[in-house]
From TrEMBL:
Native source organism of the sequence: Caldithrix abyssi DSM 13497
Positions with a binding annotation for substrate: 56, 87-88
Protein name per the record: L-asparaginase
InterPro entries linked: Asp/glu_Ase-like_sf, Asparaginase/glutaminase-like, Asparaginase/glutaminase_AS2, Asparaginase_C, L-asparaginase_C, L-asparaginase_I, L-asparaginase_N, L-asparaginase_N_sf
Start and end residues of each Asparaginase/glutaminase C-terminal domain: 208-321
Amino acid sequence: MKKILLIHTGGTFGMVPVEPDQTLAPARVQNHIINMVPEISRLAEIDVLTPFNKDSSNVGIEEWDLLSQLIYEHWDRYDGFVIIHGTDTMTYTASALSFSLRNLNKPVILTGSQRPLSQYRSDARLNLIDAVELSTMDLREVLIVFNQRIFRGNRTKKISVKSYHAFESPNFPPLGEIGVTIDIDHSRLLQSEGPVFHLPGFYPQAVVLTIQPSMSPGYFYSLFDQNIKALLLLGFGSGNLPFPEPDWLSFIKAAMKRDIPVFIGTQSIQGRVDLSLYECGRQALEAGAQSIGQMTVEAAYVKLLKILKLTSHPDAIVRMFNENWAGEI
């Protein structure tokens, strides 16, 4: 029987009603998960760890490093890893783990739920059973398993706060679906290309700005005095930014003069950023801005934080960003 490490980090999955107002609070369920979902014990030998118990909105670079270090330290002792995580920032954590744990030769799977395990009609039980079963298989990447679908973690976005279909992979097909059988598209799976290694650390000096019509860049020039090392601007459509009024082109040029590389994404959920399509994008491209292509904003942001831990040289930042590290491109 395969041996799986189940890591509980908090989130809706383990919440329980608290009297008298029935608000939800994290419960200490780590010692009770197997009793609550006994099916997983028939799928694998399960150990449970709880490195922290937090709402996922409070999970960031410290927790990403803690999780990657914990998994790496236990790598040789287990056949797979399942992380119970809040849904709000699950895609950020999945991206972070995919950039920190490289050349995987076994699965690291994140899951959670939209309703707590303690409530009727909860999706928690099935999500956990699916994640544990998949963690016993020959899968070599960081995945999100949710609502009977299998996603590459760093290609995934949360799309709903109320539907059990909470996640989607807008620019990359799901890796599989879970029904009567588990159907996996093995042609799309990552393959390890060398020994597993751990690349810890993130440097939170990248800023994401969502551009709105008529919003002046003048509000943001002060960012240049805050020691930021990279900018990610979310434009319209294929990456278009308004100019000459408001003049975001001058803002990009000012950043570049300060050796701050500028990356451009889109507020559209689906499709790639192509700065060559329209004049608004071409001007930004000619000024030195970089497209994030089909990457999700979550993956692009986390990748920049990882890169900034490794280098502050603008050319190196751009070169590393455009490298495909873990199937995010």
